[in-house]
Amino acid sequence: MDGLETPRLDAEDRAREYRHALGRFPTGVAFVTARTPEGDAAGLLINSFTSVSLTPPMVLWCLGLSARSRSVFAVAPTFAVSILSEEQRPLITALCRPLEQRFQGVPVRDGLGGAPVLEDAAAVFECSVVTVTRAGDHEVYLGQVEHFERREDSPLAYLAGQYGRVQVAA
Ligand SMILES: Cc1cc2nc3c(=O)[nH]c(=O)nc-3n(C[C@H](O)[C@H](O)[C@H](O)COP(=O)(O)O)c2cc1C
Question: Is domain 23-158 in CATH 2.130.10.10, yes or no?
Answer without folding.
Answer: no
